[in-house]
Design brief:
Structural class: alpha/beta
Number of helices: 14
Low-confidence stretches: 1-8
Mean pLDDT: 86
Oligomer: single chain
CATH class of the largest domain: Alpha Beta
CATH architecture of the largest domain: 3-Layer(aba) Sandwich
Radius of gyration: 24 Å
Strand content: 15-25%
Order of helices and strands: HHHHEEHEHHEHEEHEHEHEHHEEH
């Protein structure tokens, strides 16, 4: 596909085409866009005439993308992200309000590292305004890619995904935790096989700790234990585990800094189920970046250094 062909297309047609590609259905895409199905079909036909190749294959009511259609989706997503960046940069320059920051984070880090960093940021730069969105890797990183949020504070991989830039901040240790008086606390070492026989209060599916633990059970050829409670709310899990014999799998650095749970709970000596990973901030490596983003990253680095010492 040539750059000339892209320039000849109407931007509105491209955004409509992306909706069709995302939903794989003309009717549902038209309903979401608030236009008629014939109007949407006309837009897609106009795009196909512009590029000179079919973009969609229709099998009954279902729509699939051709190879050229997949190529166009990739280009169109970049153009849409650029459009979002351009509009935001111009609006911020016009209003003088270049300090709104949209932060995505996991539920655990939202309880601990992020609030400390936000307090420091707001004290240093009172003009900055913040919007915090909590979620998991399945929701946060697509939102970052689409420009709906500016940064994601979460675990970072050794090999970053193409299109993103990662800034490692600190190492975190996710461990098996029980109440202080639990019978297992008397043991010097506990095998994963023994822990698989216990009842657990587990984090929500899609979170990195939940994904790692599920993978670890498979890796050890063990049947996952019985889950008595599953929740995305850390305070809920902490309260339940502190007053029952359920086990949990969470960041100990976060737990011990949450209210008085550092006294009520303790890690268990289970090396087979200890996950050491890096926590960091992820940004898009292209497009407009508000000055507030760089200030936030610097504050996060400062906060992480203090918390790690």
């Amino acid at each position: 596909m040539t750059s000339g062909a892209l320039l000849d297309m109407e931007f509105r047609d491209l955004t409509y085409f992306l909706e069709v590609a995302n939903l794989s259905h003309i009717g549902r895409a038209a309903a979401r866009l608030g236009i008629t199905q014939p109007a949407l079909t006309k837009c897609v036909g106009r795009l196909e005439r512009d590029v000179g190749v079919p973009l969609l294959e229709r099998t009954g009511k279902r729509i699939t993308l051709t190879a050229c259609g997949l190529d166009l989706v990739r280009h169109a997503e970049r153009l849409r992200a650029a459009d979002v960046d351009i509009r935001r940069e111009l609006a911020e320059r016009a209003t003088g309000h270049a300090g709104h920051l949209r932060i995505g984070t996991g539920f655990v880090l939202a309880q601990y590292l992020l609030p400390v960093a936000c307090v420091t940021l707001l004290k240093k730069y009172p003009a900055i305004t913040l919007e915090v969105v909590t979620g998991d890797s399945e929701t946060l990183f697509p939102a970052l890619h689409e420009g709906k949020i500016d940064v994601v504070l979460a675990g970072v991989d050794a090999q970053p995904v193409h299109g993103f830039r990662q800034v490692p901040l600190m190492e975190d240790r996710v461990v098996v935790i029980s109440r202080k008086g639990h019978a297992l606390q008397k043991r010097r070492r506990i095998s994963a096989a023994a822990l698989s026989q216990e009842r657990w209060a587990l984090p929500a599916p899609g979170t990195l700790p939940a994904q790692w633990l599920a993978h670890r059970w498979r890796e050890l050829n063990l049947t996952p234990p019985k889950c008595a409670v599953r929740s995305g709310s850390l305070p809920t899990l902490l309260r339940i585990v502190a007053e029952t014999d359920l086990l949990m799998f969470q960041s100990w650095s976060t737990v011990k800094r949450t209210n008085d749970y550092g006294e009520l709970l303790r890690p268990l000596p289970a090396n087979e189920l200890t996950w050491r990973h890096s926590v960091g901030v992820t940004l898009r490596d292209h497009g407009y970046r508000s000055p507030a983003i760089d200030r936030f990253v610097e504050v996060l680095k400062e906060t992480a250094r203090k918390e790690s010492s």
